[in-house]
Structure formats: structure tokens, C-alpha cells
Design a protein that fits this description.
Blueprint: H1 5-12, H2 32-42, E1 47-51, E2 57-61, H3 62-78, E3 86-90, H4 95-106, E4 110-113, H5 120-130, E5 134-137, H6 142-148, E6 157-160, E7 175-177, H7 178-183, E8 199-204, E9 214-218, H8 219-230, E10 242-245, H9 252-255, H10 257-264, E11 267-270, H11 277-287, E12 291-294, H12 296-309, E13 318-321, H13 328-337, E14 341-347, E15 354-358, H14 362-365, H15 369-376, E16 381-382, E17 387-391, E18 406-411, E19 434-442, E20 448-453, E21 458-460, E22 463-465, H16 467-474, E23 480-490, E24 494-503, H17 511-518, E25 530-533, H18 547-554
Helix pairs in contact: 2-3, 2-10, 3-4, 8-10, 11-12
The structure holds adenosine monophosphate (AMP).
Length: 562
């Protein structure tokens, strides 16, 4: 019963300075440290298993991981880590890298993961641009750090991710070992509480054009993204999941999986440097892996291994594939040959990275074979939290008819609002939207299909040709391992498509074979003018074909015709 009118007003209709009535819920910050604390408290026995650089299997549990993350945090504070300081990592997927994800951000630092396959010049640029004060590196990458050391302006401490016994000889001065650093510090720490919009991690985009650009994630964006990716129709993670992130921890935080695993209590399995089909198969079998995530190139290696050795992984229920468009033949192989659910997803570093996931509705599931695979090739529907629209060059929204294509723009709480230490960015100018540079259609059922990167579309005679569609079809030829299509400048047609093919081991398809295979599947004017065979297609640090390299090599192919 209400005792006074004043109390009634305050309790039931709290004022908040304006006429809005606020909810009466606690305003607790969404901090990354809380993910690991939760795992350590309620999933204490769930394992984190890593193949180390030395090749042995390391195994411990979430509770121990949190203790060590606290030790790292104390060690970093002891070395003078201040709020917002950047801590660089050049490392494989493994338990120490996992501890750094939490230990660094847990005390207000920013964990800056780096792609070791970048050019030396680029890597040095990124470290200097980020102003990394600390570098944590796997032994594999010590020679790399030595090669760029003279260019580094901000780094004060280099810590090698090993113990003293495994520290290689190095001419670098003042190198610390991770194990000595961790073991010499206490595991007593109350994770501090602060505003959850504080920066937590940093990742530079590969930058095929211009300088690499820094995407600066926050605690809030990371925790909300973790909830989203764990959902059943996203990556479907839970306590019964044993997840293998093959996607590197430097590629958009391994797609957020280390955080989401802690949130859900999933068992985590890290592959270290051994990413070949044989090693992955052994690790998956040994650890009962149920879900594995990576780019199509990785799965190509795995499928080849399985076929060659007539084997598979009995526990594997699902592969999550993104980063570039998987060929239809790969989706079919996983589902029909090996009975494994193929979950196709799309996103980008600027989106933490998840944007869309392809899960068919019950009625779509029942579609006849060919049609069902047409649907599975699409990149899927946006997950809740991502608003997505396609626009024409004048910035007008386009119809969702499955045919009209335009640039994809996105907005949401885990999408970058601007680049780190960069004043202007065309991608962020669009009225609160982020322009992805991807070209896509949207169909009436909400499914998006990427037709190209803006810069990869081939413009022939004023009409667009989708390089992804041609590549996808060519990769379906039984003798083709990988295919790439690039637009080559042409005097008459502006550009013409050139197909570059890597044949399967021991096979030698001809140009005529491939053109005959494509004929009838696309309009005749889409057919590539020529087919080139390469022993291996050039791959970038995240396993994608580097079309820029192919363009450099073949750009003046029609020079004579110009
Ligand atoms: P990154 O920031 O390195 O992850 O690269 C993001 C870009 O990869 C996207 O903008 C797309 O162009 C491409 N990408 C990611 N996932 C897919 C997919 N499932 N299909 C086609 N392209 C993809």
C-alpha cells in the first residue's frame, strides 16, 4: 500500500531530468573480463586445448585460464601498462594468446592483434601507427620482429610466448619470456570496472588499397557481438560444443569465437601453427570437435586430405565458413559426401565481424537439390543487431527483388563508426551507415547474395559481370582446385574477364574444357576471354586469393588491343 504521494511518484515514475520514464534495471557494464570470470565460475571444468608452436598439446580449464589472465594483467601493470595502452600480439591461435585477449583488456589496455604474413613495411607501419608499447610474439615470429626492430618507434617491451627452455637465440635486447613474466606475478586481482564503451582490442584491415586501417572494438561491442554469434541460427554455441577456430586470432579476433566460447562455456580447441588437413583432422578427432570455423581455403585442404586418405571426423557436426565466397562444390561436398552441416556466414573486420548467416527456413530446406544449393550459396540473413540495406551510386535504397544489386551498407552496435587515428573515411560518410564496399542483391526472404567486391566487379561493355559467380562455377569443374576471375582492361569493352585456375593435384584441364563447362551456365558475353593456369594462386594473410597480385601480372594482357 502506498504511504505517501511523494514516495509513490518517485518509485513508480522515476524522473530522469526529462519527461522520459527510465527503466529500473541495474546499469552494469558489459566488460570482457566478465566473460572469462563467468566461464571460470560456472564452467570451471570446461577445457581449453592448444597445439603449441613446439608441437605438444597443452590442456587446461577456464578457471586456470582466468588465473593466468590475472597474472598477465598484474605483470603488464607492473611494467607500466596504462589505460588505453596498446599491446601488440604476433601469434598463432593458442592458450597464451587467449590469456592476452582477457588480461590486456581486463585492466583497460587494448589488445592489438597483428597478421604476421603482412609485408615487413606494413607491419612496422601498423605497430607505429597503433603506438604499441608492448609486443607479445610467438617464437616463430622472432626473426620477423628482429627484421623490423630498427623501424619500431614505440615498443618498449618484447615478450616471447614461451618458457626459458624454449627461447631461441636472438640478438634482440631485453627480451622477456611469457612464462617467467606470468609466473612471477600474483593471480590476485579484482577485475576493475569501467565504462563499457572503453576500447578493448584493435585490428587493422589488410588494406589492399591505401594504408591499413585500424578498427577499434569496445568492451560493449565485443560482449553484445558474443551474444549474437552464440545464437542457434548464428553459430549455435553451447556447453556441448567443442569449437575449433581455424580462423586466426588476428583475423577480427578469430571472428569473436574466444569471447563467445567463454560466454557459453564451449570447449575451445586451438590449432597453433598446424593448419594442414592432416594436423587439423588429428586435432579434431582427438578433441571431439563439433564445430570448426575458417575460410574456404582451409576447408579445401581438409577435404583433399579426407578424400585422399578416405577418412573424416566423426564428431564434426558443422563447419562455419566465411571470409570469401565458398564454391558450391564445397558446400555439396561437406553436406553430401561427409554429412556435415555447412554454415555460410558473411562479415568483415569492421563488423566485429558477423553480419549475415545462411540458415534456411523449413520451407527452403525442402527445396529440390539444385535450388537448395542455389540458396546455400547466398551469404544469408542479417543477424539481430545488424541493419543492412543495398544502395545505388546516388545513395538511393534498392528493391529487395533478388536481382537488383547495389552496395551493402550496415549499421549496428558492433559496427565501426570510424577508423582509429584517421580523420576522414569515405566508408563512414554515409549518414550513420558504414559502406562495406561489397556489392549484393537482397531477395524478398531477406537473403543477401554478394556478387562482388566493388573493386572486383568486371565491367564489360557497360554491363557488370560477377567475378564471384564465375569463380564459383569454375570451381565446380572436377579438375579445378581454386579459381579467380579478374577484369583486364580492354580497349573495346572497358574490361574483359580472365579466368585464372589452380588445377587439382595430378589433373590438367584445358582452356577449352573449362570454357565448355561454363557455357550455358552464364550469358555468353560473361565467358572469360582466356583461361590461365597457375601452379598456385597467390593467397593473402587471411587465406583469400590476392587478386591485386594477379592483376599486376596480367593487367596488360590486352595492351596490344588497346
Ligand atoms: P575481412 O575484413 O578481411 O574479414 O574481409 C571482409 C570481406 O571479405 C568482406 O567485405 C567481403 O568482401 C569478403 N567476405 C567475407 N565473407 C564472405 C562471404 N561469405 N562471401 C563472399 N565474400 C565474403
Amino acid at each position: 500500500m502506498l504511504t505517501s504521494p511523494a514516495l509513490a511518484m518517485n518509485d513508480l515514475f522515476p524522473a530522469c531530468g526529462d519527461s522520459k520514464m527510465r527503466g529500473l534495471m541495474m546499469d552494469r557494464p558489459l566488460l570482457i573480463s566478465s566473460l572469462l570470470s563467468h566461464a571460470a565460475n560456472v564452467f570451471r571444468d570446461q577445457e581449453i586445448v592448444s597445439r603449441t608452436v613446439e608441437g605438444v598439446i597443452h590442456r587446461y580449464r577456464y578457471a586456470e585460464a582466468e588465473r593466468r589472465a590475472k597474472q598477465v594483467a598484474n605483470a603488464l601493470r607492473g611494467l607500466g601498462l596504462g589505460e588505453g595502452d596498446r599491446v601488440g600480439t604476433i601469434a598463432w591461435n593458442g592458450h597464451r594468446h587467449f590469456e592476452l585477449y582477457f588480461g590486456v583488456s581486463g585492466v583497460g589496455g587494448v589488445c592489438h592483434t597483428m597478421n604476421p604474413r603482412l609485408h615487413h613495411r606494413e607491419l612496422a607501419y601498423i605497430i607505429n601507427h597503433a603506438k604499441d608499447r608492448f609486443l607479445f610474439v610467438d617464437t616463430t615470429f622472432l626473426p620477423l620482429v628482429r627484421a623490423i626492430a630498427h623501424r619500431l618507434k614505440s615498443v618498449q617491451h618484447i615478450v616471447v610466448l614461451c618458457d626459458r627452455a624454449n627461447l631461441p637465440d636472438t640478438p634482440l635486447n631485453n627480451v622477456l619470456t611469457y612464462e617467467e613474466l606470468v609466473l612471477s606475478h600474483s593471480d590476485q586481482l579484482e577485475w576493475p570496472e569501467f565504462d563499457d564503451r572503453t576500447a578493448s582490442s584493435l585490428c587493422y584491415t589488410s588494406g589492399t588499397t591505401g594504408k591499413p586501417k585500424g578498427v577499434l572494438y569496445s568492451h560493449r561491442s565485443t560482449v553484445i557481438h558474443s551474444y549474437a554469434i552464440a545464437l542457434p541460427d548464428a553459430l549455435d554455441l553451447g556447453i556441448a560444443t567443442s569449437i575449433l577456430p581455424v580462423v586466426p586470432m588476428f583475423h577480427a579476433n578469430a571472428w569473436g569465437l574466444p569471447y563467445a566460447a567463454a560466454l557459453t562455456g564451449a570447449k575451445l580447441v586451438f590449432p597453433g601453427p598446424a593448419l594442414d588437413g592432416k594436423s587439423l583432422t588429428e586435432l579434431m578427432n582427438g578433441e571431439g570437435v563439433t564445430v570448426a570455423a575458417g575460410v574456404p581455403t582451409v576447408w579445401l585442404g581438409l577435404l583433399n586430405h579426407w578424400r585422399e586418405h578416405e577418412t573424416k571426423v566423426a564428431s564434426l557436426e558443422r563447419v562455419v565458413v566465411g571470409g570469401s565466397a565458398p564454391p558450391r562444390s564445397m558446400i555439396q561436398a561437406f553436406e553430401e559426401e561427409f554429412g556435415i552441416d555447412f554454415r555460410h556466414a558473411w562479415g568483415m573486420t569492421e563488423m566485429s565481424p558477423l553480419g549475415t548467416v545462411n540458415v534456411l527456413t523449413p520451407s527452403q530446406q525442402g527445396a529440390p537439390g539444385g535450388e537448395r544449393y542455389d540458396l546455400k550459396c547466398k551469404q544469408g540473413r542479417p543477424v539481430y543487431g545488424v541493419e543492412l540495406e543495398i544502395f545505388d551510386e546516388q545513395g538511393r535504397p534498392l528493391p529487395h527483388d533478388g536481382k537488383t544489386f547495389g552496395e551493402v551498407r550496415v549499421r549496428g552496435p558492433w559496427i565501426s563508426s570510424r577508423y582509429f587515428r584517421q580523420r576522414r573515411s569515405k566508408s563512414h560518410d554515409g549518414d550513420g551507415w558504414f559502406a562495406t564496399g561489397d556489392i549484393a542483391t537482397l531477395d524478398p526472404s531477406g537473403m543477401m547474395q554478394i556478387t562482388d567486391r566493388k573493386k572486383d566487379l568486371v565491367k564489360s561493355g557497360g554491363e557488370w559481370i560477377s567475378s564471384i559467380e564465375l569463380e564459383n562455377l569454375a570451381a565446380g569443374h572436377p579438375d579445378v582446385a581454386q579459381a579467380a576471375v579478374i577484369g583486364i582492361p580492354h580497349e573495346k569493352w572497358t574490361e574483359r574477364p580472365l579466368l585464372v585456375v589452380q588445377a587439382k593435384k595430378g589433373r590438367s584441364p584445358t582452356k577449352d574444357d573449362l570454357l565448355a563447362f561454363l557455357k550455358g551456365k552464364v550469358p555468353d558475353w560473361w565467358l572469360p576471354d582466356d583461361v590461365i593456369f597457375e601452379a598456385e594462386l597467390p593467397l593473402g594473410g587471411t587465406g583469400k586469393v590476392q587478386k591485386a597480385k594477379l592483376r599486376e601480372k596480367y593487367d596488360d594482357r590486352y595492351a596490344a588491343a588497346r
